[in-house]
């Protein structure tokens, strides 16, 4: 079967270029070998743990991007969201609330606002899996290194690594005294305070304590009196560690951390105002103009709130035996998040949403790893995951919802009556208004429909247990040729239940058959009303939810899968390595924990025969089935005296990609038949001079939905097969220049700039194609480090004030309108630090 070729991507030409590069470096390398160049003359070695062993970056045949702690500090990366400015293959999208962030690698990723969808990109901090975005966001403490592993990593990292892994390693305690205190200020009244202290207590025990506070005013002004600025920062964290080394062969590392976020998030811009805009304004409300979506204005009628409390403990035990090493990582984490938001995004009180989530997670990993210089290196391990999710939300009707629908429906019906061959006056046909005319016909008191005391409360519980067992073997055929085979078996079980309280009256009425006259449906008995039934049905947007488990739906999924990886790596010489990889990945079923969860159409007959179907029952999906990914890679890694570069060609697919689309009042969850991407990743570093370092990294992608029938488009379900997925950039790159300063008195410093480019792409599938995103952002920083331990730094993010959208969505009950999240404006500041040892 022929493969689809990437646009503007010629594999023959690319392979020729790779071969040419390989040939040139092989020739140079052989010359270097002839001269027996010393190892210490090669470019600086970077150690990584992508293979769950400590190995050199250039010798490890895995597609991985590494960001050092020094780079993170120089660029003032404060949390995971900022990392994408340094890693082009990684995209990080903050969305509706502070707790919601979506990660994608090579364009693959999901799991943001809908708590039921676990990310396809696994995030690990010091070996501990963080299952949700809310538990991943927070100021990064004393980061040693961040590794971004591209492609499926299920063999070694277990569940939910079908698209890749972000592995963050922080610095452990030191037995020698060391400390640092940093104070920072910035625009929008930013105040930053962070620090750490570490020391040995005895010859066997050391500890460290770190923490920080990050506060900033918002940059989005409210046009409504009494409402504060949005997009502020208000975070703090604390982290303690203890290191116990009773002997050279045994080590215990204990970590306890806690962090809080309490912010007003997030800025929403009106980018397309539909016909309902006139209704809001007719009622005296404010809808923002679309002429300047980056004016950073807000029309919310109250202060939104977003709070996150995250904490946990972990214990890592490392024991070295004669021929193998034992590693155990035990962790427990708790995450609580709450929000209160104006979700109609106007100054009227139409819809308000309040939600909560609490997640308790326990994980246990055990690994046995061979040690020593062996012909065969092996690793055997298991990973156990147990999690309970308690989440829910309540949608409240506001005091303006009845007037809103009165004006909306009355004006629409009046126009319809006026356009009849014999025009009819609206007041004569509906003297009490359109809604008022139907309330008594269905036995309801005046003012019942869209009453401000009505609400819809949905509560979800999910219990998830998973076990992965894995085995990895490296066979060193020769000193230069190594083959690797890995196998993992994963079993994942989820039990889910939903309860709902819905006192919204109109949506719970069967308008066609719910009222009869002498046994005849009202619409038949009064034919004049029949033509208006669809209009009334059109505003029944929150029908009662069929709760489960029930006698048809047991609320259970149980998935299992064997995944594997195979790799061959050849060390041409100490400078150049090539590798070829084939691997598979797996992510279990994800449940739709939103109010738009609906029974499968395949259960309709059983539900109806069992008298379980609710009034106005609709059908969709309860969950999306498993994701199964496959990747084929061809890579080259080279290092030399003044630099290094890595390049990887890949062909990656995901069968059953779990797509979650926000449709105004909830999320539609579906499996795309197949999504694939062919592309190239490249990263390099070059010492132009002794002081000037140039870095360049790029990703070229050619994504396509090979099959996706029934996707959610702008106007409903569509077939996206053969089209490019929205939100995936075909080209992205990061280019950086760093100049190292050295003075005669011992003072050192740096001047650094980083430029991020992401090519234009449609934001999401269910918004108009003209809503696109293109990024061209420049960051810069400079600093001095004095011999007395004091250092100062200046930094600016988005120096060129680049404007782009993060994402977009259709707001609730405002057909034809679309909102978007604008990018953050230019921010800048200064820090002063004191370090002692």
Helix content: 10-25%
- Rounded to an integer, what's the Rg over CA atoms? 29 Å
Mean pLDDT: 87
Distance between the termini: 63 Å
Features:
837 residues; 22-stranded antiparallel beta barrel; five-stranded mixed β-sheet; mainly beta; single chain; globular; disordered N terminus
Description:
By secondary structure, the chain is mainly beta. The chain is 11% helix and 50% strand. It has a 22-stranded antiparallel beta barrel. Strands 3-8-9-6-7 form a 5-stranded mixed sheet. Strand 32 and strand 33 form a beta hairpin. The longest helix is centred in the first third of the chain and has 24 residues, at 11-34. It is globular, with a radius of gyration of 29 Å. The chain starts with 10 loop residues before the first helix and ends with a strand. 44% of the residues are buried. Residues 1-41 have low confidence and may be disordered.
Quick structural summary:
By secondary structure, the chain is mainly beta. It is 11% helix and 50% strand. It contains eleven helices and 42 strands.
